[in-house]
Design goal:
Layout lengths: L1 E4 L6 E4 L2 E5 L4 H13 L8 E4 L3 E5 L17 H24 L17 E3 L8 E4 L2 E5 L6 E3 L1 H12 L13 H15 L3 H4 L2 H21 L3 H8 L2 H14 L1 H8 L1
Antiparallel strand pairs: 1-2, 2-3, 3-5, 4-5, 6-9, 7-8
Helix pairs in contact: 2-3, 2-4, 3-4, 3-6, 4-9, 6-7, 6-8
Bound molecules: adenosine-5'-diphosphate (ADP) and magnesium ion.
Adenosine-5'-diphosphate binds next to β1 and β3.
Length: about 260
């Protein structure tokens, strides 16, 4: 047994080939998505193995996992482009789920966003993928998944992978390199030109929604989000919004 993440009552534990995570009110929706993805050709995400009243058991995806600052294999161009290709495949394979469940009301952690084109992973960041060598081979942590536009999910992924982050610990390179990495991500995803034109604004809107979500959850009494606010996590996002606003034109030109 190995503790993957600490947290009283909220630990994430590896037991053999399985990962044990606490169930959430939206877990059943996520389980349906994972099953659909496996049935429709996307096998790079965990499979549901079992549940009890408190926990879910998911299959463990073999590979290395990383966090910020991006260093080593996770900072490579092949990690970046394989991540983008994987997100594209995830989106493509989830489109039918949207059609099949259009009339059903399902709980999600993050509110569905119109137009619901695909299942957005919601947190498609370097810390939620598994690598083998320089290649992204899997993606986990679907707790933030929800129906929404492709661009909504691509925007957050590009923000995380470029990354357009200003905090010293999270930064990689300067603006030019970040914009070039953003373009590489869009190319590998196959993002249409008209969508690239909207990307910086979408990133800003996605980050504003994230800060709003953190604040509303804290207001409702969620201790985890309250302590994130107390630690100033939202200030980092607000600084990144300002960074994106300041460099909007430069990034736009690099992307289009
Ligand atoms: N199915 C999985 N396969 C491989 N590693 C996993 C899996 N689920 C979780 N992990 C590992 O445990 C860590 C924490 O789990 P995660 O589901 O990302 O929760 P959180 O982001 O809330 O901490 C991940 O960063 C990853 O290293
Ligand atoms: Mg995670």
């Amino acid at each position: 047994m190995e503790v993957l993440k600490q947290g009283s009552g909220r630990e994430i534990i590896k037991q053999g080939d399985a990962v044990r995570r606490p169930l959430q009110p939206w877990s059943h929706s996520v389980h349906r998505v994972l099953a659909h993805l496996h049935q429709h050709g996307f096998r790079h995400c965990p499979r549901l193995l079992a549940t009890d009243e408190q926990f879910e058991q998911l299959s463990f995806i073999e590979g290395e996992s990383y966090d910020y600052p991006l260093q080593g294999s996770i900072a490579s161009e092949s990690a970046l482009t394989s991540a983008a290709r994987m997100l594209r495949k995830l989106h493509d394979c989830s489109a039918l789920f949207i059609e099949q469940t259009a009339t059903q009301k399902m709980p999600w952690m993050l509110a569905p966003r119109a137009p619901a084109e695909v299942i957005c992973h919601g947190d498609f960041a370097p810390y939620n993928v598994a690598l083998q060598g320089d290649l992204v081979v899997g993606v986990f942590d679907f707790d933030c998944a929800h129906p929404g536009p492709r661009l909504w999910d691509v925007a957050y992924a590009v923000y995380c992978w470029a990354p357009f982050k200003t905090k010293a610990d999270d930064k990689l390179g300067g603006l030019e390199q970040q914009a070039q990495r953003a373009k590489l991500f869009c190319d590998a995803y196959g993002l249409a030109n008209h969508q690239r034109k909207l990307l910086v604004n979408e990133m800003i809107e996605r980050l504003n929604a994230l800060v709003g979500f953190m604040q509303s959850q804290a207001k409702r009494g969620d201790q985890q989000f309250q302590s994130n606010l107390d630690d100033g996590h939202h200030l980092a996002y607000l600084a990144d919004i300002e960074y994106l606003q300041t460099h909007r034109d430069f990034i736009y030109r690099a992307l289009v």
